[in-house]
Amino acid sequence: MSCVWSADLQAAVYARLTQDPELWDLVGERIFDAPLEAEPDEATPEHVTLGEELVRPWNSKTSEGAMHDFDVSVHSRRDGFSAAKRIAGAICAALVDAPLAVEGGRLVALRFVRAKAERGRAPEKRKVTLRFRAVLDQDN
Fold first, then answer.
1. Mean pLDDT per 10-residue run, the chain (140 residues)?
2. Where are the alpha helices (DSSP H) in 19-125?
3. What is the CATH number of domain 6-36+44-138?
4. What's this model's pTM, rounded to 2 decimal places?
């Protein structure tokens, strides 16, 4: 199986994040499925973006499937990591084992793989990149 579910998976992840009340309390509507063309203003110190994706086949003798590793990044203008890590925790809580609907496929598993917290150059002072793995199988 190729990237047949990639767009639907991204849409489902985006919908899950934008509808999560805990994440909404932390970043509001500042969740984007594309990089920002301009930096957010000083009144919006944090935002979230959906990032890179790597898709590999996950086939068996009886079905076709795909393994999607994808990134979700937290961007912060604050000096410390505290706010960015709280947002990262809310993202994990919203996504791990979430019952996402993907048209034509069945989500077998959605797991956290790793996180990388790093310092950035101004205006982005902190960034936390989370990697998740979604395993999808054809819908029979």
1. 85 97 95 75 80 91 90 92 96 97 93 95 87 90
2. 21-27, 82-95
3. 3.30.2000.30
4. 0.91
